[in-house]
Amino acid sequence: MAEATPLLKDELDIVIPTIRNLDFLEMWRPYFQPYHMIIVQDGDPSKVIKVPEGFDYELYNRNDINKILGPKASCISFKDSACRCFGYMVSKKKYIFTIDDDCFVAKDPSGKEINALSQHIKNILSPSSPYFFNTLYDPFREGADYVRGYPFSLREGVPTAVSHGLWLNIPDYDAPTQLVKPLEKNTRYVDAVMTIPKGTLFPMCGMNLTFDRDLIGPAMYFGLMGDGQPIGRYDDMWAGWCVKVICDHLGLGVKTGLPYIWHSKASNPFVNLKKEYKGIFWQEEIIPFFQAATLSKEAITVQQCYIELSKQVKEKLSKLDPYFDKLADAMVTWIEAWDELNPPKKTKLPNGTAK
Amino acid sequence: MSHPIIKDDEVDVVILATQPDLTSFLEEWRPMFSRYHLIIIKDPDMQKDLKIPEGFNHDLYMKSDMDRILGSTSIRFSGYSCRYFGYLVSRKKYIVTVDDDCVPAKDGRGFLFDAVAQHISNLRFPATPFFFNTLYDPYQKGADFVRGYPFSLRNGVKCVLSCGLWLNLADYDAPTQALKPDERNSRYVDAVLTVPLKAMMPLSGINIAFDREVIGPALFPGLRLAGEGKQRWETIEDIWCGMCAKVVCDHLSLGVKSGTPYVWRKETGNAIETLKKEWQGMKLMEEVVPFFQSVKLPETAVVAEDCVLEIATMVKKRLGPVDPLFGQAADAMVEWVRLWKAVASVSPTPGV
């Protein structure tokens, strides 16, 4: 008989960036209500964000971020959902689940509602298998296993640091693809979770994501995007590339696949194009940079790995654009801020209080 | 961008007959197979005559044919290994092959999946090994490359190997199946994806298709267990050549896909019986993986044949001392390339 998936309600925070309202939480209520939420309010801090009754949360607007981080607040993006990573920093929990405010509960092919959080928890609590591809996908899922030929010495797997979920309905396409295929919807439910092999990079989408803060948190910096920056819609991409290089180095796993959420809102492709424009060119250089990035044997913590990466960014990508020089500095600032807010702890710290 | 359609007369379906009566097998597959030419190889170890139903355009090869065509060779084409003979004698660009204990899988409404058509589609459209697409195969209808996928990588590379999967009896090894005797694979995962560059995988020969001209030389009966038997649990030859093939593909910038199509694999054999035999395969795999991870092929190896010969030399040198079976595998690889050049009617095509 299958074991019940633990709720982890005292070990997991839900981080939601928002600029509008949080009506979408009503649909998620049965699944999210047991958990503490961290809401990061982007944009105008004087606006009051209404949170539906009955949720336990703390909310931070730009003024709060500036107050808490002081000059280090410069590393947190403004007018971009990248600001969500502030929520990762202030959380006191082991796990983070982050979701966008235009994402709703999806249904599986049988019509049953998908408990996305529960699936993420299953993914993250079971090992990953990055060193050899299992053709039946996640061998730790019920009804699956390692196939013939899979070396026994690799079957224990490694700890899972990231669970990357997908989206039905509006797919996460870039602006050019959206322009060419404005009506395309993702209707294919692929009933699989799989480990992304070591050495393989992927485009990490922040819409439906869970990770282990203890294992990889400091690498989940979503970069400098939005207001005052030359680029947008590359926040999660940047974090994903850094995270994967570091996970590969530290022997941690990244899974992708289930759970699906229902992505309801297609953003304006022309607005997106303006934000992504530089990124589309830059990623041609950035990807080879990350593919070739190596970390030293001495880098054994996430912070050490991240600082090393930031130096390589400064050294190798600054010539692409001075933005990367700024970004490399911001990466260092982020780690400093992370370490300040997350000192090595002996006792559990209480949650921040709601505003 | 257009991807040329693969025509029926470019495909051979290779079937290894391990049972004397192929009637029920071929009748189940008739809707999918009847358009194609079949190459049927009768296992030389099987004494009984073979029964093949009417209406299939096929060539049948028996022991006498195999002896005549191969001449003197150190490779034993018997059991699962005689399927490879079919690859040698085929004159087509593409091969699709399915074990004879598999039938077409059905979807939830009872419609049959056309495994051959799916394999051909996998081979027709490019693979994308250099960067993982989270929506899986971007060339499938209703899918595409996701945000963050570099544009310069969206042309992909030629896919030369398509590895399908199995419903009902999954391709587990004997210990796994023995531990979970009632476990059946009932999960249909509606995806095909490219196995990324440098990622290794176990190739299951039960349900595959490939570009014979490009990668044929790298699919060979090399590693043969002393106790190799008539059950898939007792073989490793496909796992071994699959790892070679993947290394070759990575070196030549060719793609390997895994996922759909599924076939329905019938109950055969007894996992616990197999466990009683000495299970060499599992022990050997422990040596095999670190070896393949470290293989580097020279730039001068630009076709599969050359790559296989290079790997054979490395196997002999580095794995030969570990177990004599590896030395034999290396010899078999060299012999296979010789046979390929002598018998298979294709001149080396550089990786495209």
TrEMBL record, chain A:
<feature type="site" description="Required for activity">
    <location>
        <position position="155"/>
    </location>
</feature>
<protein>
    <recommendedName>
        <fullName>UDP-arabinopyranose mutase</fullName>
        <ecNumber>5.4.99.30</ecNumber>
    </recommendedName>
</protein>
<keyword id="KW-0325">Glycoprotein</keyword>
<feature type="site" description="Required for activity">
    <location>
        <position position="148"/>
    </location>
</feature>
<dbReference type="GO" id="GO:0052691">
    <property type="term" value="F:UDP-arabinopyranose mutase activity"/>
</dbReference>
<dbReference type="GO" id="GO:0009505">
    <property type="term" value="C:plant-type cell wall"/>
</dbReference>
<keyword id="KW-0961">Cell wall biogenesis/degradation</keyword>
<dbReference type="GO" id="GO:0005794">
    <property type="term" value="C:Golgi apparatus"/>
</dbReference>
<dbReference type="InterPro" id="IPR037595">
    <property type="entry name" value="RGP_fam"/>
</dbReference>
<dbReference type="GO" id="GO:0071555">
    <property type="term" value="P:cell wall organization"/>
</dbReference>
<comment type="similarity">
    <text>Belongs to the RGP family.</text>
</comment>
<dbReference type="GO" id="GO:0033356">
    <property type="term" value="P:UDP-L-arabinose metabolic process"/>
</dbReference>
<feature type="glycosylation site" description="N-linked (Glc...) arginine">
    <location>
        <position position="148"/>
    </location>
</feature>
<dbReference type="GO" id="GO:0005829">
    <property type="term" value="C:cytosol"/>
</dbReference>
<comment type="function">
    <text>Probable UDP-L-arabinose mutase involved in the biosynthesis of cell wall non-cellulosic polysaccharides.</text>
</comment>
<keyword id="KW-0333">Golgi apparatus</keyword>
<dbReference type="GO" id="GO:0071669">
    <property type="term" value="P:plant-type cell wall organization or biogenesis"/>
</dbReference>
<dbReference type="Pfam" id="PF03214">
    <property type="entry name" value="RGP"/>
</dbReference>
<dbReference type="InterPro" id="IPR004901">
    <property type="entry name" value="RGP"/>
</dbReference>
TrEMBL record, chain B:
<keyword id="KW-0961">Cell wall biogenesis/degradation</keyword>
<dbReference type="GO" id="GO:0005829">
    <property type="term" value="C:cytosol"/>
</dbReference>
<dbReference type="InterPro" id="IPR037595">
    <property type="entry name" value="RGP_fam"/>
</dbReference>
<dbReference type="GO" id="GO:0009506">
    <property type="term" value="C:plasmodesma"/>
</dbReference>
<dbReference type="GO" id="GO:0052691">
    <property type="term" value="F:UDP-arabinopyranose mutase activity"/>
</dbReference>
<dbReference type="GO" id="GO:0033356">
    <property type="term" value="P:UDP-L-arabinose metabolic process"/>
</dbReference>
<keyword id="KW-0333">Golgi apparatus</keyword>
<dbReference type="Pfam" id="PF03214">
    <property type="entry name" value="RGP"/>
</dbReference>
<comment type="similarity">
    <text>Belongs to the RGP family.</text>
</comment>
<dbReference type="GO" id="GO:0071555">
    <property type="term" value="P:cell wall organization"/>
</dbReference>
<dbReference type="GO" id="GO:0005794">
    <property type="term" value="C:Golgi apparatus"/>
</dbReference>
<protein>
    <recommendedName>
        <fullName>UDP-arabinopyranose mutase 5</fullName>
    </recommendedName>
</protein>
